[in-house]
Design brief:
Butyryl-CoA Dehydrogenase, subunit A, domain 3, 678 residues, three-stranded antiparallel sheet, binds zinc ion, 60% helix, mainly alpha
Length: 678
């Protein structure tokens, strides 16, 4: 899940933004360690279903749901992208290409030579000379470039057909070798951290290091919060049986749960993904059963889930105190490079707009013909479906949209189709979901998706292509300045998706289908903007309640309901079972306070899109420059040339105005389609 399908092969330990990133298989990397989380499986309710539509459909079919919403299988025969496969031959000729082995051997030797040349030369009294430091960084970038070429190939091949033995063993072999090489290179970053603040401050001022300044500074952000070396070792070792073990237990427990759901007189045992899928079922009774099964089982496990979460909250509070973080969100803000004032301004703006969400939920209730909208009704489909769109038409629409923004965008996007950088064919064994992979600026990007012709699939192509354009535009950056930090990573993808969406809606002549499309867009945006805001407020309230001692299930339920009540108001009725809604969300366990980054990314793009609509073509050069700068500076600094102040609530308001526009379009359409009974 990756928050949104963006993916780069696992970065090395000295790469930018390594502190925390979602890997493409849904695992999360924290400070270089990989935590297996498989986020998409359990967070489908929170995020758009774009993440893994195929697996999702399969899960739903398994459970007997989805009868009326499965546009995929019927569309597949007429509109699928059969034969649209990527060409990886510009990387290597095949899994047995001798160049792979040769690359690994050369990397091994060069990494050894790098270690011999630089070990002990960075952490020296007075710090390294700027010239020497720069030379080391350039050499290191080259080693990572070459590494990621090999690992990129292994990943992409594996994803083509995850059942293929040759790909599997290649992937395993490459991973083992690169771990070894990565360990050889680790010292460089660590030695840079050893340099005193005074010396480091002086060194990064040198003009020769200007392009690496942000990178060098961001590496040191966590330095003031480090413990002594012995303490760090101790913490690392004790975490294995401490906080990491608790987190693992949460994963194992929640993934082993089965939920009894009765359908057609037969009781079935479903896993969590299948049970959550029922909340999207067109049949209300099925949704209710799914909801009841989910929360009654979680309640059964309540004492354990409460104990686990309380322990982890307490552990984080302890570590924050020892590491001298002023508040529970401070560590995350550092990783995101976002000032806390900006986050608070954004969250308050979102809260101020909760009534907009409530008016939409009321509208949805009336469209569904429900006198009372229950919490398990919010994902109910409207059951209005458009015709499947053939792949060629989708390609034309997407290209036309990107061309309309800018000719350069159009030309870059065309290359993806013409030069076979996209694998869109649905196949057995292919990795589900969608992503864009752009390992290094010396390579182009690759896109994986499984296109079946639904409007959502069209959006997915637009989205991933946006990532691809972002990557191609920032190729003039060096590797360490190339990848955007998390809050800006979705900028081009969501922007492109909005442009395509607007075209798609305008083109659609059937008002019912237009309404359906709008509803989908609105609900996806709500899931990213509002819901993630609710989750963050809940976490804040939990950490502040923990100051008074151990948390009880009742307290957690109360805090959860309070955070949700603010959002839903009286537009949606929350059930008793919903008190356990916090208990299975992996972010709370593995990556506290992660969720606000989703709000930031989405709302930022909505606001940028608003600016584009207001300012027209004069906006485009500044937008292009933002993308071209990749990850070369903090989000705040990168956005400043666009006249954006992220600590100003009125900026965030722009994004919310864009959401308002979508809701009011839906209201107008619904008024004509669903006349109120007199
Ligand atoms: Zn994305």
């Amino acid at each position: 899940m990756v928050h949104c399908g963006t993916a780069t092969p696992t970065p090395g330990p000295y790469a930018p933004s390594t502190f925390l990133r979602f890997d493409r298989d849904g695992s999360v990397r924290v400070a270089g360690r990989t935590l297996r989380v498989f986020i998409w499986k359990v967070t489908e309710v929170m995020f758009s279903t774009r993440e893994n539509p195929i697996a999702w459909k399969k899960a739903a079919q398994h459970s007997g749901g989805l009868a009326a919403t499965d546009a995929g299988s019927s569309a597949a025969s007429t509109a699928s992208a059969n034969g649209v496969r990527w060409d990886l031959s510009d990387l290597f000729a095949g899994h047995d290409d001798p160049k792979i082995q040769a690359s690994l051997t050369a990397l091994d030797e060069d990494a050894e030579a790098f270690a011999v040349r630089y070990r002990g030369t960075i952490s020296v009294p007075g710090g390294p000379s700027p010239h020497h430091l720069r030379e080391g960084i350039v050499a290191l970038e080259d080693l990572y470039e070459r590494q990621w070429r090999v690992s990129g190939y292994a990943h992409l091949r594996y994803d083509e057909d995850t059942r293929d033995e040759a790909s599997r063993s290649l992937s395993q072999k490459v991973e083992d070798r690169l771990t070894h090489i990565g360990n050889l290179l680790l010292f460089f970053g660590l030695e840079w951290l050893e340099v005193s603040d005074g010396d480091a401050g002086r060194i990064v001022e040198d003009p020769i290091l200007a392009i690496y300044r942000h990178h060098l500074e961001s590496q040191r952000l966590f330095r003031p919060h480090r413990l002594s070396e012995d303490e760090e070792k101790l913490v690392n070792e004790k975490d294995v049986t401490g906080s990491s073990a608790w987190a693992r237990l949460h994963t194992e427990l929640t993934s082993s749960l089965t939920f009894s759901v009765e359908r057609d007189g037969e009781v079935r045992q479903l896993n969590m993904a299948q049970t959550l899928a029922l909340l999207h079922d067109p049949d209300r009774d099925t949704r209710r059963r799914g909801h009841d099964a989910l929360f009654s089982k979680l309640e059964e496990q309540g004492p354990t889930l409460t104990y686990l979460y309380d322990t982890l909250v307490h552990d984080k509070r302890t570590m924050d105190r020892l590491r001298k973080y002023p508040d529970p969100m401070a560590l995350r803000h550092l990783g995101n490079e976002i000032p806390s004032a900006a986050v608070e301004a954004m969250m308050q703006a979102v809260e101020g707009s909760y009534p907009l969400a409530q008016s939409y939920f009321k509208l949805k209730g009336s469209m569904l013909g429900l006198p009372e909208m229950m919490v398990y009704d919010q994902y109910a489909p409207l059951e209005l479906h458009s015709q499947a769109m053939p792949w060629g038409d989708a390609r034309d629409l997407v290209l036309e949209s990107y061309r309309a923004i800018d000719t350069q965008f159009g030309a870059l996007a065309t290359e993806f189709f013409d030069r076979k950088w996209i694998d869109a064919e649905p196949r057995d064994g292919k990795r589900g979901g969608a992503y864009c992979s752009y390992p290094t600026p010396k390579l182009h990007a690759w896109i994986l998706c499984s296109y079946t012709g639904t409007p959502r699939d069209v959006m997915t192509v637009a989205h991933e292509l946006g990532h691809g354009l972002h990557a191609m535009l920032s190729r003039k950056q060096t590797l360490f300045n190339y990848h955007s930090t998390l809050p800006l990573a979705e900028t081009a993808s969501v922007f492109g998706e909005m442009v395509v969406f607007d075209r798609l809606v305008q083109r659609e002549t059937d008002p019912r289908i237009r309404l359906n499309m709008l509803a989908g867009k609105i609900e996806d945006s709500f899931a990213t903007v509002y819901r993630q805001n609710v989750l963050t407020r809940f976490e804040q309230s939990v950490f502040s309640a923990r100051e008074d001692g151990r948390l009880t299930s009742r307290q957690l339920g109360d805090l959860w309901i309070a955070a949700n009540r603010a959002y839903y108001g009286d537009s949606v009725t929350l059930t008793d079972g919903y008190r356990w809604g916090w208990s299975y969300i992996p972010h709370f366990i593995h990556t506290p306070f992660y969720c606000y980054a989703y709000v930031f990314g989405q709302l930022l793009v909505l606001a940028l899109y608003r600016m584009y609509k207001e300012e027209g073509q004069s906006f485009v050069p500044r937008f292009t420059e933002l993308l071209a700068r990749g990850g070369s500076d903090t989000p705040e600094a990168l956005l400043r040339p666009l006249g954006i102040d992220i600590t100003d609530a009125s900026f965030w308001q722009k994004g919310l105005v864009e959401l308002e526009g979508l809701v009011s379009q839906a209201q107008v359409l619904a008024a004509s389609l669903y006349p109120r009974p007199e």
